[in-house]
Amino acid sequence: MTTSLPEPATPDSAPNESAPAKKKAPVAKRRAHVAPSKAKPARTATRPKKAASARRGNIPEEQTNNAPARATEETRVAKRRAHVAPSKAKPARRATRLKKAATARRGSKTAKILDLLKRPGGVTLKELVKATGWQSHSVRGFLSGTVGKKMETPVESSQRGDGERAYRISSK
Questions:
Q1: Does 161 have pLDDT greater than 80?
Q2: Strand duo 165-169 + 155-159: pairing
Q3: CATH of the domain at 145
Q4: Each residue's pLDDT tens digit, 103-127
Q5: Which of 25, 104, 140, 163 could anchor a disulfide with 110, C-beta 3.0 to 4.6 Å?
Q6: Percent helix, strand and coil across the chain, each rounded to 5?
């Protein structure tokens, strides 16, 4: 007659032998977070390849001896759309501001030039260079760009009797 000895108690086993032993739930291993890969689209029916001479453009495909045999039943394949970026929404129009004549601050070079241009006889380029300390091409650019276009003040130039060019604000 054999007698069985009771098994030694383990931390995993329950103290009561009649109750089933509790098992720990398995813990999944941690992996680095990686985005899932995109599934490849299913391949559609492909067109038969053209003969080498037909690819070169010498002979049409219908006239070649090795033209591919056509399928008895036509396969319906949707036409591929061109890859075009979606149209962007147009921004709403902003209210247009009324343009007011730009005025120069007192004592600035712009104010000095405008005062000289208001003289009835006008002002020469040399006088403007002396008043501002700018080079002559900078003065001409200022008269054309800032005074003429930005300030929308018409500037008139004329040749004097001594050969000097005079600038003045015209009354247009």
A1: yes
A2: antiparallel
A3: 1.10.10
A4: 778 888 999 999 999 998 899 999 9
A5: 104
A6: 25, 5, 70
